[in-house]
Amino acid sequence: MSNFKTDIKRILTHILIILGLLFALLFLFFEIFLPSYTHHGETVTVPDLENFHYDELEEYLEERKLSYVITPDSGFVKEAPPLTVLKQNPRPGAKVKEDRKIYITLNAENAPLVKMPNLKNSPLKNAQEVLANYGLVRGEIIYVPDIGINVVLDQKYRGRSIKEGFEIAKGSKIDLVVGDGLGKQTLAIPNLIGMDESEAEFLIVGSGLRIGKISYVTTDSVPKGTIVKQLPPSGIEAKTGELVDVWISELEKESNL
């Protein structure tokens, strides 16, 4: 009986020793070896790489114990120099471990080609949104007489009409020919003779015309500031927005006796 008890104690002692050694090994592995192997607690702050040129990346990141990978999908920003950084992942300021790879998107050397969308008969606001979605830039807005107000009548690239589907460089400027909502209306030029300058201006603008060149003539027969001549003359048919030149009287200077 005593031998049996002795054997049990010996077995239990061995088990305790084995368990102790096992716990000791686990402690050493998780608390000392693993943190040391994985650089536990050691982090690097990701720098801001925007606008860095491709040639500058390797040396700059190596000094900070980081590396990089260029993503296959490049972007394009017309204002940015070619082969400069547009995007990065992780973002600037992120805490990462040493030797972490930073994924870089570069600006393409040449603008990619996009197909010209059809903007004709679209409202101006919608046309501008479509251009932005295609990576194109709205250029000059050219208003022409047409009953459709702010409706795109034509789309132009470098002064020439461009058809839907034509390939152009991303970032290109597209001029839009837009209706002014007035159409090709004609009206009779009003009679301005004898009016003062402010009255004539009010009538011209109210008639859908525009004031053209203003000249002054000396006279002693009509009050100062009176319209004495106009071109085109009254009664002539003119298109909306046409210019009307006027001549305004000013008093003749008295000579010294």
From TrEMBL:
This protein's UniProt keywords: Membrane, Transmembrane, Transmembrane helix
InterPro entries assigned: PASTA_dom
Protein's UniProt keywords contain Transcription: no
Chain ranges passing through the membrane: 12-34
Occurrences of domain PASTA (ranges): 41-108, 183-250
UniProt keyword Nucleus, yes or no: no
UniProt superkingdom: Bacteria
Name of a matching Pfam family: PASTA
Entry protein name: PASTA domain-containing protein
Organism of derivation: Echinicola jeungdonensis
